[in-house]
Amino acid sequence: RAMLRGAIAMAAPNVRASFQAGKGANPPLVVLVHGLESFSGTWDAVRARCASPDGPHRDRAPAILALDLRGHGLTPVGDEDDFSPATLAADVVACARAHMTPGAGRDTFTIVGHSMGSRVALRAAADFPESVDHVVVEDMDCSIRAAPKFDHDALRRCVLTAPTRDEVVANLAAAMPDVMTRERCEGYVARGRIVETVEGSSAGEKPRWTSLVNPLGYALAYERVLAVDDAALAVKQIERFAAMRKPAPVVHLWRAPHDEPTTCARKDGLGGVEWILKRDGSSEWAVRDCVFEGAEHSVHNTRTEAFTDAMVALAMDGTDAPERL
Predict the structure, then answer these.
(1) Exposure of 128 by Cβ count < 10 A (0-12 exposed, 13-18 middle, 19+ buried)?
(2) DSSP secondary-structure letter at 189?
(3) How far is CA 52 from the centre of its chain?
(4) CB-count burial class (<10 Å; 0-12, 13-18, 19+) for 278
(5) Structural Rg of the chain based on CA atoms
(6) 3-state SS assignment for residue 268
(7) This prediction's pTM
(8) 126 near 237, Cβ under 8 Å?
(9) Cβ atoms of residues 230 and 115 within 8 Å
(10) In sequence order, what are the residues at sequence separation of 6 or more whose Cβ sits closer than 8 angstroms to the Cβ of residue 222?
(11) What is the tens place of the pLDDT at every residue in 233-276?
């Protein structure tokens, strides 16, 4: 029977996070932000490669903070009216600051966001440029997505924990039938997003199943993060900082090839990859672009070794990834 992932604690208001210590002298911090209908467990392979005593990062590796955004994983939705890119970004930065060692001489961190999470990462970099030195946008663009129509009352009524896996799957499918089909929910089980847990004392434990995908969190993230132009505004805001010679985090696009069917990094149009890469010439600041050959939308899970090694090099040494990996 699988247990919920360990070493998870409420480290800052509204955010559940899992921290992994770094290696070497005064290692920097990398904050990992998951995407839509996901949770912090999506980064387990990246964390494992950094932690491996026999791997390439056995002597030097950044500290890693993987967190659950509001309405995802183990973090509750909280105040629905306060669900916005800015609030999610503030949560992330507060959690990161809570895990930084006072007096260690480091007051900045690298933030890596996958898909929808990259938009939260961009907003964090724009609102807290003094705290973020690099922001990695993994397989996402800044274009506005059209949100489906959601029945919020049905989503609020959805019960995420039940005695059996089938009951959890049925609850999700009933709350969001057009999106969370039974087939899709079975995929959540396979990917560890519906998990078996226990409740009660060790002498009287009762097995339960819990969904780490929250339909209400999914809907709010889609409507408030993906279906708005906030990410594009964040990129322009960061660029203006550079033009004014203020702290300007470096933005990195790490993505699958444009011809990969699963990619969510749209090439053309307002907010697309080409739009992000095009600068206004007001400063030498530029967005770095790296294509991971053979990767799918989840670059960190389909090219784990290359992704992790590039992340470590960026965080530890400030080394940009090449144009192709």
Answers:
(1) buried
(2) H
(3) 22
(4) exposed
(5) 19
(6) coil
(7) 0.93
(8) yes
(9) no
(10) 36, 116, 145, 147, 148, 150
(11) 999 999 999 888 888 999 999 999 999 999 999 999 999 999 99
